[in-house]
């Protein structure tokens, strides 16, 4: 049997035996006239810190390799004291609070791990969002937000 259209489950036979595809709304997934193209715009991130690579135990920012915990903003890179996830302390998050960010993207290494909310309570009490994710997701999310 030969398939003639991708939306076969919605096709019906007419009284003369011809197969006819009904008109369906786009939500039904069979709108052949819909334009699925995506418009891309070049991001102007010149002069900003951009994650160019990441891997086991390291990240690259503007093609420079870094290891260990970092605080990265659009215009600065600084070392951050906790060496491992288990080393997080309230004082570490107070250091970030002093920078008064709108949002904190916390990369926790190769695995997603959530620190205890009391550790970053000072940030949330100040109305600063804290998004926890694995480091790869944090790098990608940071680049997207930087480009906006």
Provide the descriptors you would attach to this structure in a database record.
148 residues, alpha+beta, Hypothetical Protein Mth938, Chain: A, 2 domains, NADH dehydrogenase [ubiquinone] 1 alpha subcomplex assembly factor 3, NDUFAF3/AAMDC
Please, how many helices?
3
In the CATH hierarchy, what is the architecture of the largest domain at level 2?
3-Layer(aba) Sandwich
Whole-number count of domains: 2
Return the average pLDDT rounded to an integer.
81
Chain oligomer state: single chain
Structural class: alpha+beta
CATH superfamily of the largest domain, by name, is: MTH938-like
The main sheet comes to:
3 strands, antiparallel
User: Topology as H/E string?
Assistant: EEEEEEEHEHEH
The CATH class of the largest domain turns out to be: Alpha Beta
Q: Level of helix content?
A: 10-25%
Ends distance: 49 Å
Pfam families: DUF498
InterPro entries: MTH938-like_sf (IPR036748), NDUFAF3/AAMDC (IPR007523)
Protein name: NADH dehydrogenase [ubiquinone] 1 alpha subcomplex assembly factor 3
Organism: Hucho hucho (huchen)
How would you portray this structure in words?
With 148 residues, the chain is α+β, with helices and mostly antiparallel strands. It folds into two domains: 1-39, no CATH class; 51-147, Hypothetical Protein Mth938, Chain: A (3-Layer(aba) Sandwich), CATH 3.40.1230.10. The protein contains three helices and nine strands. It has a three-stranded antiparallel sheet with strand order 3-4-5, with helices on one face. Strands 1-2 form a two-stranded antiparallel ribbon. A hairpin with a 4-residue loop joins strand 6 and strand 7 (77-79). The longest helix is centred in the C-terminal third of the chain and has 13 residues, at 135-147. The radius of gyration is 24 Å and the shape is globular. This is NADH dehydrogenase [ubiquinone] 1 alpha subcomplex assembly factor 3. InterPro entries: MTH938-like_sf (IPR036748), NDUFAF3/AAMDC (IPR007523). It comes from Hucho hucho (huchen).
């Amino acid at each position: 049997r030969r398939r003639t259209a991708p939306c076969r489950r919605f096709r019906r036979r007419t009284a003369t035996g011809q197969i006819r595809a009904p008109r369906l709304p786009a939500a039904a997934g069979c709108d052949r006239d819909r334009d699925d193209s995506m418009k891309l715009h070049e991001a102007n991130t010149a002069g900003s810190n951009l994650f160019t690579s990441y891997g086991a135990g390291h990240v690259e920012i503007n093609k420079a390799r870094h290891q260990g915990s970092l605080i990265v903003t659009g215009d600065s890179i600084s070392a951050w004291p906790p060496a491992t996830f288990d080393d997080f302390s309230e004082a570490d998050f107070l250091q970030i609070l002093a920078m008064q960010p709108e949002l904190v993207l916390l990369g926790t290494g190769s695995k997603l791990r959530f620190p205890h909310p009391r550790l970053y309570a000072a940030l949330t009490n100040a109305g600063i969002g804290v998004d926890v994710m694995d480091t790869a997701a944090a790098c990608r999310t940071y680049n997207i937000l930087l480009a906006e």
